């Protein structure tokens, strides 16, 4: 099992959710986050004063997946989230050594199936 984490632009969230739901991904955790990458923030004007915004708002998705499903989930996220510009986001995958469904006590892959 793997934990897929994707940080994407907020305006692409609905596209990503729709793409994943259409392919049977039944669960994900979504959280608003902010950060800085290659785009290094930006400068805005507020009441005539220049203000440097160091971080950029993003959305983080966490998806637990079986080893077999990881690649197609990643491909769907990339396809739905990509604009072709700096700031589209990042995806990383780490092993999930234990997963337990709290309501039933199911463990492993059974805990991430719908």
UniProtKB/TrEMBL annotation:
Cited InterPro entries: N-reg_PII (IPR002187), N-reg_PII-like_a/b (IPR011322), N-reg_PII/ATP_PRibTrfase_C (IPR015867)
Name the UniProt record assigns to this protein: P-II family nitrogen regulator
GO cellular component, one term: cytosol
Gene Ontology annotations of biological process type: regulation of nitrogen utilization
Gene Ontology molecular-function annotations: ATP binding; enzyme regulator activity
